[in-house]
Amino acid sequence: MLHTKRQTNRPWQKHHLLGRGNNGLDFLYFAILELLDEIKADLEPATRRSQAIPAMTKLLASLHFFAFGSFQRTVAITAGISQSRFSEVLSEVLNAMLRRMAKFIRFPHTQNSLNETKQGFFAVAGFPGVIGAIDCTHVQLVPPAGTELVYRNRKHTHSLNVQCVCDAKGIITNIVAKYPGSVHDSYILRNSALFSKLRDGEFGDGWLVGDSAYPLHPFLLTPVLNPTTAAENRYNEAHIRTRNVVERTFGILKSRFRCLDRTGGALLYRPEKVAQIVVTCCMLHNIAKLHGLEHDAMPEDNVGPSLRMEQQLNAAGTQTRTSLIQSHFL
After folding, report:
1. Can you give the pTM of this predicted structure?
2. Residue 79 · residue 70 · CB < 8 Å
3. How do the domains of the chain map onto residue ranges?
4. Is-contact 273 150, C-beta < 8 A?
5. What is 201-244 written as a DSSP string?
6. 3 state DSSP class of 134
7. What is the pLDDT of residues 93-105, one digit of tens each?
8. In a 3-state reduction of DSSP, which class is residue 178?
């Protein structure tokens, strides 16, 4: 329950809906109220008929779906509305959230925010200059007829391959959620707006950290394959600990929102709507983090490591990584 002592069997009113705060349910209660205030104008019924669904019911029913990965019929019964009406409600909530994406998912761009991000990552493992940890995760779906091969990933399940960047606190700062599961991580990055901004030096002298699925760039540092010196080993150890932040973020995200995890079953929507659900859950994850709502991480069951891209070294990237190893890890 949120603010009464009477017990209820409505699962959206339990504390693990978004997470748990240090002050019990107070954090959850105020987080939901604040979110409702943010999107209420988009959800309020245009009619005052008695059958109109209140904005709070729309929001809570959608949060229930995100958190538990239930079938629409189950959520509709719990919310006291028809299945077809819940489908409309879910679309309303998704559209309301996506209109505000830029408010809740923002890559650091000012000097102060970039410096704060670098300091946060440096505190993790002493790795300097990091402005984000990047990786991809797969969200299972049922592919449209005739597109099974496109959405089939290396584990022979069907999915979207979703790219995320996060800061040291696990707040998601960038997301790309539109590519099918067969697409390689490096391709998604190479064709993203973030790549162009990094390449053009828009964020100064900072860099991302990513695994060996990505090619080495001056703005994207990867592990040293087959390290031969103590300094290279120290670099790799710090790199792994720093990059682990994004893997833990995926674990928390999928534990918080079971609709994104395979334990919740494959999402039964067209890929475009699955992408909307993924982005909305990432926004809600950030909102929960900003309200101090913590959540345990579940092991990330990804489709396995992507093919190594170390053979695509470039001279500038090699020089940047070598200089960093010599200046900070000797």
Report:
1. 0.87
2. no
3. 11-103, 105-329
4. no
5. TTTTT-EEE--TTS--BTTEE-PPSS--SHHHHHHHHHHHHHHH
6. strand
7. 999 999 999 999 9
8. strand
